[in-house]
Amino acid sequence: MTTAAANNPVGKGFVYFAGLSVLGVVATFVGLYVGYKLGVNANKVLIRMGVSFGSYGGIVLPFLMAVLLWGIAAAAVIGGSVSRIGRFMGGHMFVTVLLAFTTIIGANLALAYSAVATFPGLEVSNSYVASQEFNARKAEQVALGWSVSASHADGVLSLEILGADGTPVQPARLEAVLGRATHVKDDKDLSFTFDGNAFVTPVELAKGNWNIRMKAVAENGAAFQKRLVLHLK
Predict the structure, then answer these.
(1) Which DSSP category does 54 fall into?
(2) Was domain 128-232 assigned CATH 1.20.140.10?
(3) What local confidence, expressed as pLDDT, does residue 28 receive?
(4) What DSSP state is assigned to residue 27?
(5) Alpha-carbon distance 31 to 36, whole Å?
(6) How far are the Cα atoms of 25, 52, 55 from residue 207, in angstroms, in the given order?
(7) CB 5 within 8 A of CB 12
């Protein structure tokens, strides 16, 4: 005895295209993930070779590779089904639209998660307490009269601290973190050496914008902090 679904071509079509939809979603998300990972690794190789895509170099190649492998995965699933059936049916169009929208929604969710996970935006744990201390810290820092600048040349990062009289200053303590403005995955703690004029450290940097978040303590115990923007072309 045959079942109703077996005698009903509409029912068979629904089950077939439902399965094709699931297969397509899985295949395209695998394609996106594999493409992204390949792009990230390829980007690291290109950076070591001195090749950069500019300010958005960290995402351009992974994005292109993810889209490319997503397209290949979607084409393989839908194209294989069309070849098997012998014609492009309405169900294929439904699966095509479904894959497009699930990919868009999935990419947006992934980007939102990545943005929050890599840069939560937290500066201070208690903004009220920080605001009460801000004016006192600012007055203490301004009284030092320090001016700070940063430069990078020949693989060496230089941090110059000058006093009010224009002479180099060597703080009692100096801490600095180097990273990008939009995420923290490239953050690195810097270990400087004072050469008599400036604080220097060897570090290779790719092109684009870099932030140096420094904290120092003067000989009299006064705190000094500043964020320096370093743009490399």
Answers:
(1) G
(2) no
(3) 85
(4) H
(5) 8
(6) 37, 7, 7
(7) yes
